[in-house]
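pinned: reference chain
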Amino acid sequence: MSDFDPSSPAFLADPCPVYAELRARGRAHYYEPSDQWLVPHHADVSALLRDRRLGRSYGHRFSHEEFGRTAPPSGHEPFHELNDHGMLELEPPDHTRIRRLVSQAFTPRTVERLRPYVRALATELVERLVAEGGGDLLSSVAEPLPVAVIAEMLGVPATDRPLLRPWSAAICAMYELNPSQEAARRAVTASLEFSAYLRELIAVRRAEPGEDLISGLIAVHDEGEKLTEAEMVATCALLLNAGHEATVNATVNGWHALFRNPAQLAALRADRALLPTAVEELMRYDTPLQLFERWVLDPVEIGGTTVPRGAEVALLFGSANHDPAVFTAPEGLDLSRRDNPHISFGAGIHYCVGAPLARIELAASMAALLDLAPGLGPAGEPVRKPGFVIRGLAALPVTV
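pinned: its structure tokens
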């Protein structure tokens, strides 16, 4: 297991060789530094995402003591108050209830109605990048597009939107393996500030409802089954965080991959019909969420290894998306790949509710860059973020 080292720059630059070794050596590997069982094969990851013997949480069945775990430090409570009431962290029946209520407001029609806004914003951002002669693709296009879209959807005023990305980055740092005390401190501060902001915004929308998603969530909150105040805040935070985090990273990861595969980029420039499969392939090729954790609620056998109750499994999405048992020539980028059952959006009851919106955003920004910046290319080496679980770049300098 010495080669699996999320703190190693070499591993972070290209974890695929280590993933291949893990797949060759077995189906479940205990990793002592994070006290987790690593699961690298696509079939196992896909099955375990749907297996009700595993859960995102265990509090619906066990106390910390019964589960053999210690409670989080009391100083982390603001983070857990915000994080643990979101549907991503919950199991049925609470998850079922909240997802059903959210789905009443977050409808396909709501998402589809945003398509013209997404296209117009992508065009505006790319035109600005071109006028400036290039710059950082992350800060100029990849970040502002999905942040503005999910903020528009939820009804966050334009003047407040610069607050969202720093809050999200601080909170999402807690999803890394063994986050530092400083990361925890920043996440707690961000959780307090974000929660206070959302409570105030919800109060405003309750007094003056609009056409936004928060107003829609309030409406379902006030009918029959309800979202509690804590669930409302956590749901809004989840939608704001998850609603842009993966899209930001998929955008820069995707263009970085295209720059390193010029023949594929040339094919895409020559044939826009490749765009739908290109979006899926880029999500597979350099997966923005590399790992998804689940608690073992009842013992489960993985390839002859029994993983006991109370253990935690780390489902390696990045490895699963490069499994040769499922993908032909997985280490190659093939924008025409049609047989592409990648799991970048998860599976089972926690499948990403925002996946349709993410696909619209990725296609819109890619189309705008292809059309308006046909000579787009790298302008130096990108800067990779130090995290492993959430994989992305800190900057991607480009020239037009």
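why pinned: The chain is about 50% helix and 10% strand. The two ends are 43 Å apart (CA to CA).
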